[in-house]
Structure formats: C-alpha cells, structure tokens
Amino acid sequence: MVESRAKFAVNEATVATAGTAVQLPDIPVGSACELVVKAKRTNKGAIKVGESALQAQAGKFTLEPGEAVKLRISNANKGYVDAEVSGDKVELIVEQ
Question: Looking at residue 95, what is its pLDDT?
C-alpha cells in the first residue's frame, strides 16, 4: 500500500517561442508518484512532449488544450515541451 504524501507542488512552464522546446522546471517527484503535465485549456494549439528538446520538437506525443499525461519520472526536469503556438503553457502538479 502506498501512503499519502504530506505535500505537493504546482507549477507551470511557458513555451515562449513555438518550435523552441523548453525543459520543465526542477521539481522532485516522490517515490511511487507521478508528474501530471496538462496543456492549459486556454492554449491555442497542441503541446508536444518529449524526453529531450529534439523529441519534443519532433512532436511524436502531443496534448491538445486541456489534455494531460502522467509521467513516472524522478524529476520534472527530465521532460521537455514545445508548442505549436508561441506563449502556450503546461500546468504541472506532483506529490512530493
């Protein structure tokens, strides 16, 4: 059985320039926890997710506005996002 965590972190990342992937912020992810990456509902285009800048830019995995993905990784900074539209954002939440 996995016990509840005492705290969680909420953050966001902005893709300032479409086509230029950004690394997610340094947020530790607790053991047996998942990072939730959600494309903001107000985005104008898709968000592309990858484990490197090149992979995010290639757009093999995309999130439409309002969609989310859970990632079981040790730190949010292991992920990258790119956007079809400059200024679009992702929201992040994770138990620690």
Answer: 87
Sequence ranges of the domains in the chain: 8-95
> What pLDDT is stored for residue 96 in this prediction?
80
Identify the CATH number of the domain defined by range 8-95.
2.60.120
Tens digits of per-residue pLDDT, 54-68?
999 999 999 999 999
Half-sphere exposure of 22 (CA within 13 A, CB side): 18
Mean pLDDT, range 73-92, rounded to an integer: 97
